[in-house]
Specification:
The protein is 23% helix and 33% strand. The protein has 14 helices and 25 strands. It starts with a helix and ends in a 17-residue tail after the last helix. Strands 15, 16, 17, 19, 20, 21 and 25 form a seven-stranded mixed β-sheet that branches. Strands 3-2-9-8-7 form a five-stranded antiparallel β-sheet, with helices on one face. By secondary structure, the protein is an alpha+beta fold. The N terminus and C terminus are likely disordered. Helix 6 runs parallel beside helix 8. It is globular and about 85 Å long.
């Protein structure tokens, strides 16, 4: 095993001055030789303590669930999770370690970090459906409370029903699979984050040799029940409860299918699990459904939305609220409301310029590339107006061998449960027709399975001498994609200004993608008359 080979080069043993367990009276001092030894027996990385060449039973530490804290130059505290099998509950235990000198303390901390990294990356061959006991990459980057709520949410049938009843989403997946039977017939499929198992059943309908439906939430039990109720298809489907970062499969997949998209494509950070599944399970040159995602962006003008958000903070302008002056919190409340991305469906005529797009190729991108996404922005205003922020939506491509098909969440297209998203500036900027709008959309992933968004938009000089001119106005905001404002209203009719031309709906299904588009995204062109997109 490659991981075990790497461990041979790491420091294995350290002589300690003293060690004691905080929850018990057991302790040992330097009067008897005490050794801390790193071990990888059985694929589980542990820190074990030995005294006079004998292993101290019950006094070992699971490196994957432990943290090491430095209390002083030669003193440290190791805190780990333990489990009481009699009372069926977990608890924390602490082991106080004293070293003989500072150098040995530094070496021990360095070795501990190396072994923790090894615990994350080492691969062990486990029986089908068995989950590794070591902490996975998912566990090391996601806050436990966030993961618990996430899997609880998707473990409920009512939320699965909400997605299944999104007929744009479900119907597009069905069409993409059934119209491309050649990609599925006789092939092994892995359904990443299978949920109710509907995509696995679609793959089986298309003639898949076998489908492995991997689902980490309690929905896996419902999926088993649904699949068992469709025996002609279910005999070729195996449901595996666990995270794709942890489970092992008996064979590689010819094709991955998944619905990993969240709001703004990347919310919930499931795309990273989709990429990890590609690295772990997909054969070279295997197919991914979907294979490409695009985030579309354009500045917008919506006075009604801006006033609606600003007015929410008026509550905090009361100077006599039951005898209390609330105004000291008005500024914070005002900024707080503008830190929420707005999720709703809007009229595409609110867009101030044609959109640009950022392409994410699921076949090529590395998981780490999704930790931070930096998109430079450059638009030319089509009208003179106030710009209130940046509107975003996404589409994904199922690049089937027979019929490539798009799933779009564009404004003006049939509404999906993703809707669209708008980042609203607390300070709008003014633009004239033909004026250049520049900026930056910077998204940084955080451990609550979402992103912090930093948006900046600037209006540049226009007209004669613009090349020598600088920035006229700039406005920035910071938003948390985890905490949106779910407005979700249907688009309302807006009166067009005399100089404003309605933007035609950009049908993502009808836009051909060329190789150069994947390398450097450009402004989307008007849709062609051909209904089928082709990769050239």
């Amino acid at each position: 095993m490659e991981g075990s080979a790497g461990l041979k080069n790491k420091h294995l043993e350290f002589t300690l001055a003293a060690v004691s367990e905080l929850s018990s009276s057991w302790a040992s001092s330097s009067s008897t030789p005490l050794i801390a030894r790193f071990s990888a027996d059985g694929g589980i990385l542990e820190l074990r303590f030995h005294q006079e060449s004998e292993f101290i039973d019950g006094f070992n530490v699971d490196i994957g669930t432990s943290q090491l804290f430095k209390l002083g130059p030669v003193q440290s505290l190791c805190v780990s999770e333990s489990f009481d099998t009699n009372e069926e509950k977990s608890y924390s235990r602490g082991v106080a370690i004293q070293f003989r000198n500072e150098e040995e303390s530094r070496d021990f901390h360095s070795a501990f970090e190396q072994w923790q990294k090894e615990d994350v990356i080492q691969g062990t061959h486990l029986p089908n459906g068995v989950i590794s006991a070591s902490r996975s990459k998912f566990d090391n980057k996601i806050e436990p409370s966030s993961a618990k709520m996430y899997f609880h949410y998707y473990g409920q049938l009512l939320h699965q029903q909400n997605m299944l009843q999104d007929y744009v989403r479900t119907g597009t997946y069905y069409a993409a699979v059934i119209e491309n039977r050649a990609d599925f017939t006789g092939h092994v499929v892995v359904d990443v984050g299978a949920g109710s198992g509907i995509l696995s059943l679609f793959a089986a309908q298309a003639g898949a040799k076998h489908v492995y439906a991997v689902e980490a939430s309690e929905m896996a039990e419902y999926a088993r029940k649904l699949i068992a109720g469709n025996p002609t298809l279910g005999q070729r489907i195996t449901v595996i409860k666990g995270k794709v970062e942890e489970v092992e499969l008996p064979e590689k997949a010819d094709i991955l299918i998944s619905e990993p998209m969240g709001t703004l494509l990347v919310n919930e950070r499931m795309l990273e699990s989709y990429i990890i599944a590609r690295e772990r399970f997909l054969v070279p040159n295997g197919k991914m459904f979907p294979s490409i995602g695009r985030i579309h962006m354009a500045p917008f003008s919506d006075e009604y939305l801006f006033v609606e958000i600003a007015n929410k903070a008026l509550f905090w302008q009361q100077q006599n609220y039951y005898g209390v002056d609330l105004t000291p919190l008005y500024g914070s409340a005002f900024q707080g409301y503008f830190s929420q991305p707005v999720v709703d469906a809007f009229d595409p005529r609110l867009l101030v310029s044609p959109p640009l797009c950022h392409v994410i190729d699921f076949n090529e991108i590395k998981e780490e590339d999704l930790y931070e996404i930096d998109i430079p922005l450059k638009f030319i205003a089509s009208v003179g107006t106030r710009v209130h922020g940046l509107a975003c939506w996404f589409d994904v491509l199922f690049n089937g061998s027979t019929v490539p098909r798009w799933l779009t969440t564009a404004p003006g297209a049939p509404t999906t449960h993703w809707y669209q998203i708008r980042c609203v500036l607390s300070q709008p900027i003014y633009v004239m027709a033909g004026q250049e709008i520049t900026g930056r959309l910077h998204m940084i992933a955080h451990n609550a399975q979402s992103y912090t968004i930093y948006l900046t938009l600037s209006a540049k000089m226009w007209g004669p001498g613009a090349e020598q001119g600088g920035i006229l106005q700039t406005s920035s905001c910071k938003l948390d994609l985890k905490e949106p404002y779910y407005r979700m209203s249907q688009p309302q009719p807006y009166t067009l200004a005399q100089d404003q031309q309605p933007h035609q709906l950009l049908q993502a299904q009808d836009i051909p993608i060329h190789t150069e588009d994947l390398e450097e995204p450009e402004l989307l062109q008007q849709p062609s008359e051909n209904s089928g997109a082709q990769l050239q």
